[in-house]
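Readers of this paper often ask what the protein records in our data store actually look like. An entry from our holdings is shown next, in its original layout:
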Amino acid sequence: MTQDGTLLEERGPLDPSDGHVDGNAVAGALAAVFVTEITTALVRCRACGDAGPFAALMVWAHGPGVVGRCPSCEAVLLRYVATPGRVRVDLSGIAELELAPVAAAGR
């Protein structure tokens, strides 16, 4: 969705002169986000809309990766796989992830 509320599909192809920048512009801000305490983060399930602390997820970690499911509807919220050269994280089942600011988390 764009800032004016239209869906990207409705808007047509992106125009390089529209003022957008690449992901490097937000890298610094996200670096601070991804070092905070995750267990107290609020997680909202994309499937059922229920929200609760990250620590309440049902997690299976017996295979080569980790799967986290919603405790309310059992939808897959996250997948995590670490290999020798890469880490892959899929958070597509999470509609919203609300974190405390780094300073508030005691960092």
In short: The helical segments are 8-11, 24-33. Residues 26 and 93 are 22 Å apart (CA to CA).
